Amino acid sequence: MEYKIIDVLDIKLAHMRIHPDALAIGASEDDRSFLGCSVEDVGVLEPLTVIDNDGADYLIIDGAGRYGEAGRLGLVTVPCLVVECDNVRDFVMNKNPMGRKRSTGSRLLCFGMLHQDDVFRGYLGSRDPRVCQKADDALKKWLPGKIANRLSVGRKDVTLAAELLYCHVKDIDLDGIEIVDDAVRTKLRMVFNQVLQGELPVRRWRSAFAGALSGTQAGTAGKAQTDYGCVMERALTSLDNAWSKWPEFELDDAVKRRVHYAFAEVIEHAPPTLRESATLALLHWPEGELKALAKKINKQLGCK
């Protein structure tokens, strides 16, 4: 991105409008409130950033809130930095994390859009432990854990933001299937924009999207109903990842017992259909392990 300051001018509000890329990301309500009080008390202290629109007027690429407050208060002119910028989208994405109260999801989506290909490589690589173990330094830089440390956010937030961006860009749904229905595509775009603008936490994007598809999002005080199918799917994925590395864990006996008891409790409360699935899975166990399991069960039940 090439960026250069050309001039500092007082420009009439009537000769300016907001660039579409600057409208893509909104500030928080707290930021808006503080800004309104500041402009009312002392005017616009920080110049707006604008680009020349072929001499006809100016396009605001930073300062949409200040522009709105100035108009509300009846100001005629505001101070502006006139710049040359060859990539307004990148400028906005870089500027966004500098806000006082930008949401985590908004920051992560902006970061992801700036480094899209690398973030996708890291996101897809993180889904396969074998890839992570063999990853070179170039890929490791973009794994969710590294991005989380860089931006001081949770790893889960990074993964969910990358997942949302991937679905948005690749035009796929939660199951990785191509979206061919315009209504579904529109709902995904809606959820993406809500996270980008800080209206929806990134940790709720999956449930919000599922709620929008099922029609349950409306009438729930703005909150989508919990999609327990997605919750279960993610829990099972986590369990599968943990089991794949189980031999590497160094656990003391007390921790092992807690894990064993927790697993037994999960099985006890599982719906009948899931217990049936677990029974089918036993068909793939080695005969020796099945006999050992039967022996332990019989001993617990007091059978011979």
Percent of residues in helices comes to: 55-70%
What is the number of domains?
2
The main sheet comes to: 5 strands, mixed
Low-confidence parts lasting 5 or more residues at pLDDT below 50?
A: 218-225
User: What general form does the structure show?
Assistant: elongated
What is the total tally of β strands? 5
Annotation field: number of helices: 16
Radius of gyration: 26 Å
Name the helix and strand elements from N-terminus to C-terminus, one letter apiece.
EEHHEEHEHHHHHHHHHHHHH
Spatial strand order of the main sheet = 1-5-3-4-2
How large is the share of residues in beta strands? 5-15%
**Structure classification:** alpha/beta
In round numbers, the mean pLDDT is 80
**How many angstroms does the end-to-end distance come to?**
76 Å
Main features:
304 residues; alpha/beta; Conserved hypothetical protein from pyrococcus furiosus pfu- 392566-001, ParB domain; 2 domains; 5 strands; 11% strand
Describe what this molecule looks like in 3D:
- The protein has two domains: 3-95, Conserved hypothetical protein from pyrococcus furiosus pfu- 392566-001, ParB domain (Alpha-Beta Complex); 103-227, no CATH class.
- The termini are far apart.
- Helix 6 (116-126) crosses helix 10 (155-170).
- The protein contains 16 helices and five strands.
- The protein has helices at 20-23, 29-42, 64-72, 88-95, 104-114, 116-126, 129-134, 137-140, 144-151, 155-170, 182-196, 205-214, 228-244, 253-269, 272-281, 287-301; strands spanning 3-12, 16-18, 48-53, 57-62, 77-85.
- By secondary structure, it is of the alpha/beta class.
